[in-house]
Amino acid sequence: MNMLISLRLAIVLLEAAERKALELGLSEDIAIVDEGGNLIAFHRMDNAKIAGIDIAQNKAWTSVAMQMPTSNLANAALPGGPSFGINTTNQGKIVILGGGIPLIFNNKVVGGVGVSGATSEQDIEVANAALLTFNKMTNAGSNSNPNK
Amino acid sequence: MNMLISLRLAIVLLEAAERKALELGLSEDIAIVDEGGNLIAFHRMDNAKIAGIDIAQNKAWTSVAMQMPTSNLANAALPGGPSFGINTTNQGKIVILGGGIPLIFNNKVVGGVGVSGATSEQDIEVANAALLTFNKMTNAGSNSNPNK
Amino acid sequence: MNMLISLRLAIVLLEAAERKALELGLSEDIAIVDEGGNLIAFHRMDNAKIAGIDIAQNKAWTSVAMQMPTSNLANAALPGGPSFGINTTNQGKIVILGGGIPLIFNNKVVGGVGVSGATSEQDIEVANAALLTFNKMTNAGSNSNPNK
Amino acid sequence: MNMLISLRLAIVLLEAAERKALELGLSEDIAIVDEGGNLIAFHRMDNAKIAGIDIAQNKAWTSVAMQMPTSNLANAALPGGPSFGINTTNQGKIVILGGGIPLIFNNKVVGGVGVSGATSEQDIEVANAALLTFNKMTNAGSNSNPNK
């Protein structure tokens, strides 16, 4: 069974991330993409960086397209590292800054969240709030559908 | 005095558009941009066309960048029309399909809404729901700030 | 002898165009490029269309790159016309809307002016003000250099 | 209250930068963008580098989009640094060379200046001349509008 992230669920995830951002005193750009890497929802919090509009979406895309958190690439893409040069592929869509995290259900990447606007550590913390909410809603029984 | 559209207001506008879309039995992609054409919020309704992700955002951008509803361009850009060829400028960001409408406050374009996913007529109707909500909230006194 | 348009001259041309625009009650985007099509100066008048930032520059570029006023292309690029499809070449830089005019000295294209923001007729009228000033300054003896 | 940079003010800032450049014996490309990152005015001084046309504009854009001087990124984007890889996001618009500085009014980024053509240190010095002029004009009372 394939799990599709509904707009309603995506909004719940965005809201979880926004609450965490507010808690940390941050203004963030936050994106949710689906299993094809296509954008479902995006919110730019008041005063969040304009540059983050693109970066948040592409962090989410990267987490799906590379099937890993973008923070992995922050290391792997260093000169001498195994993924050096990966950020110029895919017309520059691959982002090697932390803040993108894949959403996994039944061992399959079903979407991704991407956050941009603060430091990578902070972006990751905000993205993790969305991830946590996603896992909570999908852990209520492995067959339960969070899209209610 | 310049009015800035907050994320909260943008979400209210998206919701108004989504309600109208549901009413009409449509699945739409909906975007809100600010006065500089930068994306504030985007929602893709369940089953809405993936192609509409780009189109909705660029309809919103076009409505701000050209200071007019994109439906104006649908006619003006016909061969022999005054704007023939305008959709290849700006790296293809100008969309000449109806569904993008500027949001105006105190005679100034302060943002735009863009809808894509159905016919242009339907997209326009959905975008108009957002416009109506925006005007209602900003007509409550010419100096009242809808960003509450 | 090659005539190079100085920044000072470019600004004089921009000011001539801006005065005409003000006279006509228009807000315009205005660009001056050199003989290589490279931008020398650009001004966006208050409230001028954001879309015109790109269009004005590329109208100026087109007038140099095609060695003709862009209004020529408005006709030639119609379906069935001799230049149909030209606006998708050069990565979309060729603009087929009137408002771009080459600046000619000693029978050679030495630069171009591009105006965008109103109707093509109005853009052309504003561009012509710059052209007129350019011609006045360069007609004071065929060897006289307007860059003083 | 939001402050909008008029063309007149942008030109004053460009002239301040140009005077500094002349003083230092430099030929510079100088751009002023608004709060949305959109170009208001651009001047290329005689003999300034053609490559600087794009770089100056994108330094200005970056300073607004990232809400910081681009010189911050020169360090942060080094391999191993917190922003490594940021210059391949946003379709290459983010410039990690010094010379872009945000213009701040009432604690808000209302625009940016970008300078390119010499060394980064020199570009920064020229950009600072524009910043200084901006601050002088806006420090005349926190509510005073420099757009006269």
UniProtKB/TrEMBL annotation, chains A, B, C, D:
<dbReference type="InterPro" id="IPR038084">
    <property type="entry name" value="PduO/GlcC-like_sf"/>
</dbReference>
<dbReference type="InterPro" id="IPR052517">
    <property type="entry name" value="GlcG_carb_metab_protein"/>
</dbReference>
<dbReference type="Pfam" id="PF03928">
    <property type="entry name" value="HbpS-like"/>
</dbReference>
<dbReference type="InterPro" id="IPR005624">
    <property type="entry name" value="PduO/GlcC-like"/>
</dbReference>
<protein>
    <submittedName>
        <fullName>Heme-binding protein</fullName>
    </submittedName>
</protein>
